[in-house]
Batch of 3 targets.
Target 1
Amino acid sequence: MARGSEHAHTLLGVTGEHGPSARLFVRDEVPARPEGLPLVLVHGAGVDSSFYDGLATCMPARRTVRYDRRGCGKSTDALDGDWSLDAQARDLASVIRAVGGRADVVAHSLGAVVALRLLEREPRLFRRLVALEPPIFSGLDPDDEVFGNIGRARKALARHRSSTALYLTTQRESIGEAVVPYSARELEHRERNLQTSFSRETWAFDYVPDCDAIRGSGVPVLLCIGRQSDGTYHARNLDFLCQGLGATPVVMPGGHNGVRDYPGEVAAAIQDWLR
């Protein structure tokens, strides 16, 4: 399907251990003469695949595949009640298999945790991984202030105060406001996306990557941090993650959501690395 024609939108069924697990909304855009493997884009918390609208436009030579993670956008909730990180990794694996069985993956924030988990288990599905500010805490000093924020966020979630949890886990870490206004597509499912993230995806606080498995996979990892993220826990944890994951570090424009706010600059940087 040539770029500029009607996009391919599908609902992809994912099967878990006990039957149907989710139906994922997938946007597949294929240029007339695609270069390289498919580029699968995995979004983070509180958003859906519309987060990558700008980046996909800035990479016209690549086949770009975006999907709404379970409970987000136009995808279903977990049909079997499984909201675990392993279920999310199965979802990503299903998307990669559906588009050819091997891909370059670009994953942001919580989506990068999903991608790292799958890389631990099924490295053959990856050629390369771009991980944009994954929220991993295992390399931080136990007295780091982020752990106090996480504790307060968990208490807020237990009292069903998701807005307080959102503040503690984002504004306290300088994620900041969007540089450009949100589009209608980004706002369409925003409330649902936020509810899913702050009620179903608290496993993000506890994930510890299997660094030996990731380094041993032979899959190159590009670990990206925003220029404006200096001082956040992402920056405080950068050296640990690069060493542990065997990752190459690169500084991107903007803050935590720089891939959305500066898609042209980010596309140029990762396209060079993905060649």
Target 2
Amino acid sequence: MADTAPVLGRPTGKRAAKVHAEPCPVSPVVDLVFSRWTTPILWLLNEFGRQRFVELERRIGTITPKVLTQRLRQMERDGLVVRTYHPEVPPRVEYEISELGLSLAPLFQHLVEWSRAHLDEVAAARADYDDRGQPMP
């Protein structure tokens, strides 16, 4: 079947199938970067540089060793973190943010700026909503 002309800017053919498979192009990035613990780990590695596992664990405070290990492995797999193993006695492992991870710094900076400018508004909107007796979502 031949592609027809796009209606109101809608893609057709293979491009249309891709759009339908992923309706929001931001979703994969949100899943990758903003999953639980990924953002704080990236933030700490960006702020403090190369760190050992124990240093990350202490700085985060509320993460279990098992979960930190899982997140670091996934972030290494995704190319956001570089793991360096030093064959010493005892062995030493360090983690640092990769070039790909560093490319997210402007995004994080924009989010910091947005939070400073708008979180008070969010708190006010929540208070207004709660004052009206609306049920929590």
Target 3
Amino acid sequence: MTTTSSTSGSSLSSLLNQLGTSTNSGGSTSGSSSGSSTSGTSSGSSSGSSTISSAGLASGLDVNAIVTALVNARKAASQQQITTRTTQTNNLLTGLSSLNSALSGIQTALATLTSVNTFNSFNATLTPASGSSSIGSTSTMSSAHPGTYTVSVSQLATAQKRASTAYATGTAVGQGTLAITVGANTMNVAVSATNTLSDIASAINSSSSNPGVTATIVNGVNGQQLMLSSSKTGVANGFSVSSDATSSSGLSSLATTLNTAGSNEAQDAKLTVDGIAVTSASNTVTGMMDGVTLNLTGTGTNTLTVAQDNTAATNAIQGFVDAYNSYIGTTAQLSSFDKNTGNAGVLLGDTTLTSVQRQINSVLSGSVKGNSFGTLANLGITRNPDGTLNLDNGKLATALQSNASAVKSLFTGTNGYATVLNKTISGYASASGTIATRMNSLNNTLTQIGQQQTALNARMSTYQSQLQAQYTALDTLMSTLNSTSSYLTTQLAALNNSNSKN
């Protein structure tokens, strides 16, 4: 159309203004013609209605595609910036998190290495003397001291046991009160005239004031017997039984029998350690010597040997080496660069990573002054070409055997490797350290980027609505013009036909 052609270089708004003027003119033409051509008017109004409901169908313009393309074109640069910053920030967060985990792994290993029990572990063995049998087993604590001792056990600790005479099942014993005493604690058991031995046993066992006695019914060949047993071994845990003055003769007789010494009386364990007499109410003998417990099961003479156990220290040092090597693997990946593909680790050139590497290398490459070993290499810990550590277990075992306290000091002393390294790592990996601070900042950046994305989406939504309205108006206008053009073409054709006949 001529109108469209003449405005092809104008802006969209200018084009709409010009087309709007043409539309008003066309509308007038259409209106004036409506009286002479009903079909033409009907065709114009129908086409206009269709265009409004389905933009672009009548004019041939794909309004939605045009609007989408324009919105995407305007949004592209800003969206690319947001996407790039989001990806970079997330990559940094992932990398810093991996670095923090690797450092935490080292600190966990250091915690084990500096534990009080790691370099203070001992084992104790009992070796029977010639012609003797084992007296039991042992256990140790960190307070033990290496040494060899002769232990002779002459008597085991036993619990007191006493039994009543036999009664026919269901026989009443007599009424009154039984008093059972262990040390300074006494339990009073009320017995009715109809109570049997079973009733008395139940009352003893269920009493909240029971001082440490267990009652059992033994069904022997002569009838039922009540057996009382101390809950614990040793003379101090023996019991006594009595009845009060109001008790019947039957109950008093029971009390007298249970209070009479028999063949199973309480006794303490008796032993000597290098000739020094020791007694114990329990067969689990503690306090005999620092950090050593004897679990007695028999009598005889054994040699007790207490020696340093370096297993825990060896495992802890190996654990440190493993954790450090894991850290090296992580940092190598984070700072990697593939010259063939151009792919780089997410923390390549990152100041935090390089600072961590420099500080840790400085600690481990130094020496501990005043220590007889001085360096990790003298313990058998050396560095491989790839930066990982290698542990020579044989050399470490020799060092621990010769001077375990110096090995301990090399790690746990004031200037020891574990002490200094843990402090160094804490500056980066603690809750208030460098890594946590950076990660908090990066998370704040992600929040800001999210706000920028929301603002961009809002602007583009507004822009899209404006374009949609403009192009929909253009589509409607072009549809109307097309309708008018079709009407005029029909009228001109009719006029030509009429002139031809004349």
